Amino acid sequence: MRTLALASATLLTLWMAHLDRAAVRAQDARPAAAAAAAAPRALSHARPAPADPQAEEGTVTADDAMDDLPPAAWASDDPADSLYRAARAALADGDYRRAADLFHRIGATYPRSTYTGLALYYEAFALYRAGETADLHKALDALRQLSAAGRSPGAPDSRRGDAATLRTRICSALARQGDESCTVSIVQQAESAAAPLPDSQSCPSETDENDVRIAALNALLQMDADRAMPILRKVLARRDACSVGLRRKALFLVSQKDEADHADILLAAARQDPSPEVRRQAVFWLSQIREPRVVDILDSIAARPGDQELREQALFALSQQESPRALAALKRVAERDDAPEALREKAVFWLGQSHAADGVAFLEDMFGRTTSASLKQKILFGISQHGGTGDWLLTIALDARQPDEVRKQAIFWASQGGVAIDRLLSLYDRADDSGVREQIVFALSQRKEPAAVDALMHIAKSDKDAEMRKRAVFWLGQSSDPRAAQFLQELISQ
User: Fold this and answer.
1) Which conformational region is residue 154 in: left (phi greater than 0), alpha (psi within -120 to 50 degrees), or beta?
2) What tens digit of pLDDT does each residue of 434-461 get?
3) Spatial separation of the C-alpha atoms in residues 439 and 34, rounded to whole Å
């Protein structure tokens, strides 16, 4: 299931990067900038993910939540500076025991060093990565020393805030090896996540107590899912404001276990949680569950007026279902004249990524019935994602009834899709609009085939419009084809 979400995140990341490159190339030609506007806003699930799509939002799933490397050395006059640099290099190389030994020697040899506090943390971290039972116990000892020590003067950070989470991870590893005291500690920390805070107590820091509790819940889930799931349900039943971040992270943990009732838990959160943020997270994780009732719930969320981001998240989740019913739900949103245009555009985007047999026909039909120029541009992009649509796109470019930007977009995406150069040149000869002709010149300049250079040279030499000749000459000047350089030299010498 996780692979599917990552594939979707990769798709959006590549799509956004492609549009960025296109916008730069088309700075003078404008359509690519319009194409960039066609992309959906970056969704939370569309980030370049380290290990899972939620890692940047603080979900503790692996060691990604802890920095692998300490900050670069900052105190060249400190006697431990060279030791610190060597320890940091050993950690970067994955030589964990050597790194731990070097970090340990900083405090043992130079107890007043500004690096001492940070060295204790990274000694523990390196030992944790080494992973043997003896290493783990030594790691806990280092964290106890860090807790007892004062902050090193001038140190940028001794990582005390992360030490509690690291301690929980170390204890989790020991508990899996049968350590009774660590097992008790993990269970107690996990159970504390289910208890609402007293009214007199302030909310914990998102990256402090909550991360420790989530790390404990994650550890318990790996050790004993039957014991962890009831606690997670209690966490998700909390309604106090302090637990919003905790509930969001708990949803991720629920989504990663293929338990019989995890769909029920996510569905309940999507429908009932008072926090929009938590509901959006629940809807995102529902995207990975293939059940008809999930499609029904996502359909109702997408159709219901209200939270725009929640509805967009539901559209994404529907796009991941790969079922006829889910595609039908996306089509209904795309066609709804009373739906916000931005929502309809998202539906069109995801329909464009679908490989359904009738997908192109649906979008072409919708294009003919749509009056919004912005929506038309999104439809053009969706159609362009399917092979064999270049000729249809060029018919739109020739249609004088279409808005100028729509016609230019049609040329841009047809060319990006690899439509034949002679088809572009034929369109150029037939077009009577200077903006369309200008866009074709730009489209030719972005193609790598020798035939595109031939077409530009033809325009630069023979076109009656001086402005078009200038544009063709400009783009030939950007070409790496040696024939273009020779052509320009001949042109100058005339």
Assistant:
1) left
2) 999 999 999 999 999 999 999 999 999 9
3) 13
For the record, the structure tokens of 364 come out as 């072409």
205, with CB counted inside 10 A (0-12, 13-18, 19+), is exposed
- Output the DSSP codes for 328-392: HHHHHHHH-TTS-HHHHHHHHHHHHH---TTHHHHHHHHHHH---HHHHHHHHHHHHTSTT-HHH
Give CA separation, 69 vs 76, 82, 106, in Å. Answer: 18, 16, 16
Q: Give me 415's structure tokens.
A: 């060319």
Evaluate whether 289 touches 266 at the Cβ level (below 8 Å). yes
* Radius of gyration of the chain measured on its C-alpha atoms: 29
What distance in Å separates the CA atoms of residue 79 and residue 131, rounded to the nearest whole number?
30
Which structure tokens are listed for 358?
């009738």
Kindly report the CA angle at 117 between 114 and 121, in degrees rounded to 5?
A: 140
Predicted pLDDT at 210: 60
User: Residue 159 has what pLDDT?
Assistant: 63
User: 7 falls in which pLDDT band (50, 70, 90)?
Assistant: very low
- CA–CA dist 458, 349 (Å, integer): 37
**CA–CA gap between residue 121 and residue 169 (Å, rounded):** 13
Q: What is the predicted pLDDT for the residue at 156?
A: 54
- C-alpha span between 345 and 361 (Å, rounded): 17
Distance CA 475, CA 310 (A): 44
Structure tokens at 86: 């060597």
Which amino acid would we find at residue 437? R
Predicted pLDDT at 196: 78
Q: How far apart are CA 438 and CA 442, in angstroms?
A: 6
Say yes or no to pLDDT of 369 above 70.
yes
Domain residue ranges in the chain: 2-49
Q: Mean of the pLDDT values across residues 333-359? A: 94
Question: What is the share, in percent, of the chain residues with pLDDT greater than 70?
Answer: 81
Which two three-digit tokens encode residue 54? 């939620």
Length of the chain: 494
d(CA 320, CA 315) in angstroms, rounded, equals 9
CA dist 312 → 43, 129, 179 (Å) = 9, 40, 46
